Amino acid sequence: MKKRLWDGANNLRGSMDASRYKDYMLGLMFYKFLSDQTLNAFKTRSGITETNERKVVEAYFKAFEQYGDHLSNMIQGVLGYYVLPEYLYQTWLSDINNGEFEVQHVIDSLNNFERTMAVTSESDDFKGLFSSSTLDLTNTALGSNLNERSKNIKNLILLFSDLNMVALQKGDVLGDAYEYLIGQFAMESGKKAGEFYTPRQVSEVMAQIVVKSSHINSIYDPTVGSGSLLLTVRNHLKGDAQKLLHYYGQEKNTATYNLTRMNLLLHGVRPENMTIRNGDTLTEDWPEDPERPSEGVQFDAVVMNPPYSVKNWNQADLKVSDPRFEITGVLPPNSKGDYAFLLHGLYHLGQEGTMAIVLPHGVLFRGGAEGQIRERLLNKNYIDTIIGLPDKLFTNTGIPVTVLILKKNRALDEPVLMVDASNTFVKEGKQNVLREKDIAKIVDTYVNRSEEKGYSHLATREEIIENEYNLNIPRYIESIDEDIPDDVDAHLYGGIPYKDIENLHVLQAMVPHVINQSLKEVRMGYMQLTDSIATLTENVLNDAAVLDKSKAVETRIQAYQAKYWEQLKSVADVKAIRGIREAMLAEIKDILLEFDHVDEYDGYQIIADIWSETLTEDAEVIALSDFYTEGRKRVPLMATKGSGKNKREEQVGWIGSIVPNDLIKKHLFDAERTEIETKETRLQEVEAELTELVEAAKVEESDEESALGDALNEREDAFLIGSVRSELKTAEENSKAYHFLKTAESLLNERTKLNRDMKKLEKDLKEMTEERIETLTDEEIDTLMYEKWFGSIIPKVKRLLEKPLIEELDILEQLQERYSETLDSLEAESEKLEKELEAMMAQMVVSEE
């Protein structure tokens, strides 16, 4: 669903800027949600069992004619809002189907909802959601004239027509899709994304740390953006804690403020549990405690991704007497607002709470007023952890950022944890991305307060004072130099230094006998390999110790798979899926920690990838239906056809709802697949023979050129079958020319037949596979789905066992190559070259004219 909506958005928005188009798409998607919820509340309270949506809408119209305000008050009592029958999203769809659609009806619907909420709602949660400043349906960017705008808006409305927002909201399927779209729009929006979106991986780091640090009933984001940080924290809380959580947020940009409220409501947050304000966080403090005027409300958690280094932030001419800044007694410089945001958040942090904020690295080392603020925060013992992240994580800036964790209840002698995670990422296009394993390692390091050379360090107060309160991470964590120092004696006289071989710790721990048997001492302290690296690698990987360890891991993983196989097959509640995922990720780490020299975070990533690629979507589908029902269900396979104005989506076949067509072919149509592969192999051979014949025909005055030259289309490097047949008519039978022409004709005919046969076989196999989906047995579904979900885990984990061994064998090979040329060999080569030069000089004859 996520990808379909995003593809639809891209097809429909044309040249409109993504940061602007998102307001239209997400706004109309939200209005569909409001309409679906209204109809569902009407059905539930009226006791209607009808499943046909059109008939439910008709019943709603009739009931409203009869009961009017009484009905709308009832629905509002359930939901906190309502949509009148004539303004339902479903009424727009009916107008479209009847050819009576008008943009003005959409405008009227949105305006009516605005007016209704202004009169009846006790809170501000719905007011202004569809204001013209956010959703201006007369904007020429939607189309240069009314007809074009009408067509584009109509297509956008149709994009959501088949989505049941009520069903999708269960378990946050709808909310996840909304978050996905916000993230995709952020990537497309570039620098404009910074005002509304925090990358998911950064949100995860902050949210997991906050949840693992404090008991959370209330949470505050003073620069709330789309609300993604608040929701990420919510996702890591357990059932009842999620229901009780109260969300506070403030956002300066009005369109983004509207997006925040929609996002929270779509994620099932009750209006009474959210307090979101449209305002400037720095200009005026908010929220204040109504019972204690001039005192800020305190929260269990504060999370924030403010705009970086805002210039001229102090527009209200605030003084250090502002209670938010009294804590340090220094006003942040007007040229950079980073500490202004930090101090605002810290002011609202409860005594037992945790705060996480993303800021540029400059806050760690800049001097002046910022240096004084940093010193006083450290002296008050509020700075708990500093996490350095990679650059290019955000779409709106390429600079590296840091996450600061602050707490007010730290022990007096507790050190500051420094984490350098700036080198743990992968590149995706122009962006750097933290992998799931990178996030897990950061969070585990925080929870365990663990130290690791080159990655994390616990900085004592004495160290910090010695560094004059400069918190720049490289002052506390040195990067590891993995280069092995050169050995002069080894360069001069050959041999690998034994000390370097001793440092191959994994090989020495697991297979010392294999390594020792492959070495001989050439002189004291220097060794030489007696086997090739290829032979040594084979001996290492087939050693009994390695094979026994591999078998032990396989046994543990098989039990692990069996355990979660049963849970995934029987999942009946979408809300249980996250718990299963977290349990699988935690347990794979525990399993791999039992085995030395295996990186448990690499194993964590294997399972995280499987969840990302298949398990999340499959589990949601199964939870809303049934494992075997979905296993025998097929859904349309859609493809984009045409281009420009003719671009459209068309069905091109069927695919299994959860069972992959390719696995059905592999396991249930092996003979048919083998026949196609055999013909494909023969086709490749024919193509190769034809290519060889074409190249021969290009050689001037060759027999092939004489026979086939006139039948060759040199521009396409191919023979024309018609030309070959024409030449055959005039060629003397049994001549060389006749032989070459006949060969070419035969190959061309065979190629045509192979292509025709393969096309038919592939079509037949495709149709048989699509039909077979609906008749799969339970046993067949089990086999296919087990392979889909778990088929790659054991091979990948086994490679993790081999990985450190292979890495050290590579080092051994590099050492062998490094010291293969000695002083003696270089001198011998030099003498050889000198003699060759002398011989050449002796042969040269200088002639005199």
Automatic annotation (TrEMBL):
<dbReference type="InterPro" id="IPR022749">
    <property type="entry name" value="D12N6_MeTrfase_N"/>
</dbReference>
<dbReference type="InterPro" id="IPR038333">
    <property type="entry name" value="T1MK-like_N_sf"/>
</dbReference>
<dbReference type="InterPro" id="IPR029063">
    <property type="entry name" value="SAM-dependent_MTases_sf"/>
</dbReference>
<dbReference type="GO" id="GO:0009307">
    <property type="term" value="P:DNA restriction-modification system"/>
</dbReference>
<dbReference type="Pfam" id="PF12161">
    <property type="entry name" value="HsdM_N"/>
</dbReference>
<dbReference type="InterPro" id="IPR003356">
    <property type="entry name" value="DNA_methylase_A-5"/>
</dbReference>
<feature type="domain" description="DNA methylase adenine-specific">
    <location>
        <begin position="170"/>
        <end position="482"/>
    </location>
</feature>
<feature type="coiled-coil region">
    <location>
        <begin position="669"/>
        <end position="703"/>
    </location>
</feature>
<feature type="domain" description="N6 adenine-specific DNA methyltransferase N-terminal">
    <location>
        <begin position="2"/>
        <end position="159"/>
    </location>
</feature>
<keyword id="KW-0949">S-adenosyl-L-methionine</keyword>
<protein>
    <recommendedName>
        <fullName>site-specific DNA-methyltransferase (adenine-specific)</fullName>
        <ecNumber>2.1.1.72</ecNumber>
    </recommendedName>
</protein>
<dbReference type="GO" id="GO:0008170">
    <property type="term" value="F:N-methyltransferase activity"/>
</dbReference>
<dbReference type="GO" id="GO:0009007">
    <property type="term" value="F:site-specific DNA-methyltransferase (adenine-specific) activity"/>
</dbReference>
<feature type="coiled-coil region">
    <location>
        <begin position="809"/>
        <end position="843"/>
    </location>
</feature>
<dbReference type="InterPro" id="IPR004546">
    <property type="entry name" value="Restrct_endonuc_T1M"/>
</dbReference>
<keyword id="KW-0489">Methyltransferase</keyword>
<feature type="coiled-coil region">
    <location>
        <begin position="744"/>
        <end position="779"/>
    </location>
</feature>
<keyword id="KW-0680">Restriction system</keyword>
<dbReference type="InterPro" id="IPR051537">
    <property type="entry name" value="DNA_Adenine_Mtase"/>
</dbReference>
<dbReference type="GO" id="GO:0032259">
    <property type="term" value="P:methylation"/>
</dbReference>
<dbReference type="GO" id="GO:0003677">
    <property type="term" value="F:DNA binding"/>
</dbReference>
<dbReference type="Pfam" id="PF02384">
    <property type="entry name" value="N6_Mtase"/>
</dbReference>
<dbReference type="InterPro" id="IPR002052">
    <property type="entry name" value="DNA_methylase_N6_adenine_CS"/>
</dbReference>
<keyword id="KW-0175">Coiled coil</keyword>
<comment type="similarity">
    <text>Belongs to the N(4)/N(6)-methyltransferase family.</text>
</comment>
<keyword id="KW-0808">Transferase</keyword>
